[in-house]
Structure formats: structure tokens, C-alpha cells
Amino acid sequence: MKHKTMKTLLAALFLSGSTAVMAEQDTVAVVAPDAPQAEHTLLRKAVGEKAPDWLKDVSDRIQLHGYAQGGYAYNHKDGTNTNTFEIKRVLFWANARITDRWSFLFMHDFSSVVQEYYTEYRITRNKALTVRLGQFKNGFSYENPLSPTAMEAIDVYSEGVTFLSGCGSDPLFGVQYGRDLGLSLYGETNNGKLRYELDVMNGQGINKKDGNNFKDFIGRIEYRPVEGLTLVATGQIGRGHAVATSLYNPDIKAGDDYKRNRWSAGFDYKSKWVKAHGEYLEGYDASAVSCGGYITCAVPLGTPKVEFVGSYDFFNFNTSLDMDQHKAIAGFQYWFFKKCRVQVQYVYMSAYRLGNEFIKSPSHSVLCQLQVRFN
Fold first, then answer.
1. Are 369 and 306 found together in one domain?
2. Are 247 and 335 members of one domain?
3. Taking a C-beta distance cutoff of 8 angstroms, is the pair 191, 206 a contact?
4. How many CB atoms are located within 10 Å of the residue 179 CB?
């Protein structure tokens, strides 16, 4: 009897697998002729009803995203012309919805390093409060939390945002891509008109433990008074741990802990006629003060697929050392498919860093970029 029962169970497993693969196709139950009637009944129920479509359930809970940006760059600076083809970013990320409130995200840049990995849980039934834990973009400035695929400029963020949020131009902080390890509380109320965010982060950057026992606190608030207009204010207090020396702040040595505070105020406006955003930022690194602002816009040229892009950007890396820089961008972009585009831009800069020198001399660049993205 045990032998016949085992045969019956094996047949049930086989037929259940066949049912899952063949979906709606009915399968005839096969059991040992002399098996008890109860086994016939159980087997008919097992194979006569459709098996749960767990593959569909899993696929519905996992969203895959990715994009690539690359192109050609011509530069003229310090009396030298250079040109190169380059791949700037090749990112892939997966967002897994574990429950209706709990999810996990993993993001990797194939041209760089692992960028983000975090889990978040929506505490309230609405969007009023969500907690996030892991590695993600910090909330300082209007631009930093945005994806490069949403930015108008090929070189992405303004000079102030790049320097103050840890996107790479501050040697004291290093190249951190605007990301850090920590905890965030965020949410929105008033039918989405008011959004807030509070981050507590290491202040050391991606894939690193904290370099000191101080944490960075970052606050962000967004308000939408009317449709299309968003006002944004952000602030940060903390202490940095220098990973290298910097020509912008020579008093701080590698390994030093130093005061690192920032604040910004900006806006974003979108209509069928124009898209524009701008911001003013200030930073305090020990005794050094940096400040600047920018405004960037995109104007459709007869069709939303073709836009003129323009930007003016000013930033002083250290007001005591007179390290001011002006940057202007002009160009075009063509959206040939959803979030896919071709961009061509001219970039003028009044000053630039070359090695350990800050050179007040103009530089010129012509940039071309292809962006391909899928959601």
C-alpha cells in the first residue's frame, strides 16, 4: 500500500507541474487502479483546478528599469584641444514590492559601482509617512535627488549642486554621486501639495562606513502652491571627514573632521511653453564659505519632441580666495521615443580646475549625447 501511495503522490506532483506550465489545459487524473477512493478524489481536485500563477505574481511585484548615456565630447582648455567618445552611465535597477507597503531597491552602474540599495516601508495608509533605510541619494538641493535622465544639461547638475551635495567636484568629500548611507523619513500631505524629507546619514558617501562619530542631518521641504510650480528649500548640518586635501580649502587636511553645513532655496516650473528650474545655494566647510546659483530651461520648438536648452550657472568655491566660476550652456535635444533623446550642447566656462590649480581662463566644449531608457 505504501508503494502505491507513493506512486499516486508522484503522479500528482507531475500533473500539477504540467498544469502550471500548460495553464488552462485540463489534465486527466491518473492513479493506481486499486488506490483508495480518497486518493482519487484528492488527485482530481489537485489537477482539476488551475494551479496558482506564482510566476505572474512574482513578475507583477518586480519592476525592472535601466538607462544608458554616452556620446562624444570636444574640449578646448589651457590652449589644448581634446576629443573623445565616452560612456557616462549604464544603470540598471530592480524594485521589488514585497507587500503593498514594503519594498526593496537595488541599483548598479555598470560603468562605475553599486549606487543604491535600500528597503522602505510606508507606515501610514496614505503617503504621509514612509521610512527608508540603506544607501540612496541625499535630499540636499533641488537637483541632486533627480535622475540624470530628467536633467536638461549633458553634464547634468549645476556646479553648486555637484560640489555641495557630494557629486564629485569637492576633493574633501570625494566622488559619492550625491549618495550616502543612512535613514530617511519622508511623505506628502495636502493632496500632494506639501512634501517633506528628513535624512540622518553617515556623511561619508557610498559603500563606506562613517569616518567619524558625527552624523549629517538633512532636511527638505517642497510646496506646490499652484499647478506646475514647486518651491523647494533644503538644509544640512553635520561634520565631514576629509578623504583628501582640496585646493578650494587648503586649511583642511586629509583625515580631519570639519564643520559641513549647507542650505538652498529653489523652484521648478513646468508648462506647455517652458520648463525651468533654478536655485541659490550656500555651503560652509570649516571657515570657508561657498555660494552660487543657476537657472536652467527647456523651450519646445514647435513640438514637444524638439527643445532648446539653455542654462546660466554661477558658483564661487571659496569666497575668501576669489574662486568664482561662470558657466553658460546652449543647445538642442530631440526626444525620439518616450524617455530616449539625442542632445547637442555648447558649454562655456570662465574658469576651471587643472590639477592643483584654479585657472581663471575661458574653456569651451561641444558635447553630444545619446540617452536610451526603459522602465
1. yes
2. yes
3. no
4. 22
Q: Give, in degrees to the nearest 5, the angle at Cα 247 between 246 and 248.
A: 85
Predicted confidence band at 375 (pLDDT cuts at 50, 70, 90)?
Answer: confident
241-283 pLDDT per residue, tens: 999 999 999 999 999 999 999 999 999 999 999 999 999 999 9
Model pTM score = 0.84
Containing structural domain, residue 43: 2-48
How many DSSP H helices and E strands does the chain contain? 4, 19
Helix 37-48 and helix 2-22, axial crossing angle in degrees, nearest 10: 10
The span from the CA of 292 to the CA of 333, in Å, is: 26
C-alpha cell read off for 242: 576629509
Indicate whether 20 and 96 sit together in one domain.
Answer: no
Question: How many domains does one find in the chain?
Answer: 2
Residues 25 and 102 occupy one common structural domain: no
Nearest residue to 179 via CA among 168, 166, 197: 166
Which grid coordinates belong to 305?
519632441
Are 61 and 40 in a shared domain? no
